Amino acid sequence: MPELIKEEKLVFKRPDTIKKDYDYTFCAGCGHGIVLRLIAECIDELNVQGDTIAVASVGCSICLEKYFDLDVVGSSHGRAPCVATGVKRAKPNKVVFTYQGDGDAATIGMNETIHTALRGENITVICINNANFGMTGGQASATSVIGQKTTTTPLGRDPKMFGYPIKISEMVAMCDGASYVERCGIYNVPSIIKTKKAIKHAFENQINGLGFSFVEVLCTCPTGWKMKPVEAMKFIENEITKTHKLGVYKDITR
């Protein structure tokens, strides 16, 4: 048996940036755990764990310090880009990123997101778009798609009553200070691989001093959507991507 163990090759391990003793508090089938792992892998690969500061906002993103072995700053709802701006200006040599939901970055904090991009702050914003307020009961957010049923749109989102969805990546890409904007997803293995590349590229842009980077990740919320996990994956691929189309919306390095 010892001889067999010696012959085994390590193919998968916990990233150093993830705490050894952690317990995810996310709902079953939630995509946050996947994205957090991707972020941790990128930080490890770039060897910047000791120089990275995360900014957590209100929502399912609020408990980052429980999962990441990083310095983490808390902020009020929607204000993470403002806090990250202050951290980056005080510590310009640090890698600073926010981790926010769509209810935070694209609804309550839309103004802060846009103005931070317009200023070209050299930070990275990661927006987890699950098209609802996942933590507070599954209410509609600014990104909820037409026809989507939520606790505040039980008959489906009707544009005549609730307006049309905000397309946050397209709006951020129009800001002159934005250097990189991409929308990706985590509904299958290829999309997860692309999402990791996007997050890593955003961090690299910041390290190279290129300005504001924004990565939007279409993410599952089985509890808020009242779906089974596999059904939620298909809902992203077959429905949400019709409105929130995947792709690179801006990249000054290409």
- Category from helices, strands and their pairing: alpha/beta
Strand percentage, roughly?
15-25%
**CATH fold category name:** Rossmann fold
Q: In total, how many domains does the architecture comprise?
A: 1
Mean pLDDT value: 94
* Main beta sheet: 7 strands, mixed
Order of helices and strands: HHEHEHEHHEHHEHEHHE
First-to-last CA distance: 51 Å
Low-pLDDT residue spans: none
Distinctive features:
Rossmann fold; 7-stranded mixed β-sheet; 11 helices; alpha/beta; 7 strands; 254 residues; single chain
Overview of the molecule:
The protein is of the alpha/beta class. 40% of the residues lie in helices and 17% in strands. The chain has helices at residues 2-7, 32-46, 64-67, 80-90, 102-108, 110-119, 159-162, 168-173, 189-207, 222-225, 229-243, and strands at residues 52-56, 71-74, 95-101, 124-129, 178-185, 212-218, 247-251. Helix 3 (64-67) links the parallel strand 1 and strand 2 (71-74).
Offer a quick outline of the entry.
The protein has 254 residues and is an alpha/beta fold. Helix content is 40%, strand content 17%. It has one domain: Thiamin diphosphate (ThDP)-binding fold, Pyr/PP domains (Rossmann fold, 3-Layer(aba) Sandwich), CATH 3.40.50.970.
Topology (SSEs and partners):
Blueprint: H1 2-7, H2 32-46, E1 52-56, H3 64-67, E2 71-74, H4 80-90, E3 95-101, H5 102-108, H6 110-119, E4 124-129, H7 159-162, H8 168-173, E5 178-185, H9 189-207, E6 212-218, H10 222-225, H11 229-243, E7 247-251
Parallel strand pairs: 1-2, 1-3, 3-4, 4-6, 5-6
Antiparallel strand pairs: 5-7
